[in-house]
């Protein structure tokens, strides 16, 4: 005959758990989400800055080329 015993841990009786682990994990998830969003915003800003720098350099080179072709 198979006999099973259940072990009762302090605070594990039905109705005594309050969900602290759930709340803590949700707070950690919220913090990680905010960090991720801030990182994405920073990356997007850096990409815009790099694109503007590239466009500025290309425009300058085109202007220099136009001047050089006009006078020489």
Task: Provide a quick synopsis of the model.
The protein is mainly alpha-helical and 72 residues long. The chain is 72% helix and 0% strand.
Extended strand count = 0
Structural class by SSE content: mainly alpha
Distance between the termini: 105 Å
The arrangement of helices and strands along the chain is H
The proportion of residues forming helix, as a percent range, comes to over 70%
Strand % is: under 5%
Rg over CA atoms, rounded to whole Å, is 31 Å
Note the total helix count: 1
Poorly predicted residue ranges: none
Shape: rod-shaped
Largest pleated sheet:
none
Please give a handful of descriptors for the protein shown:
single chain; mainly alpha
Folded structure, characterized:
- By secondary structure, the chain is mostly helical.
- The chain is 72% helix and 0% strand.
- The N and C termini lie far apart (105 Å).
- The relative contact order is 0.05.
- The mean pLDDT is 86.
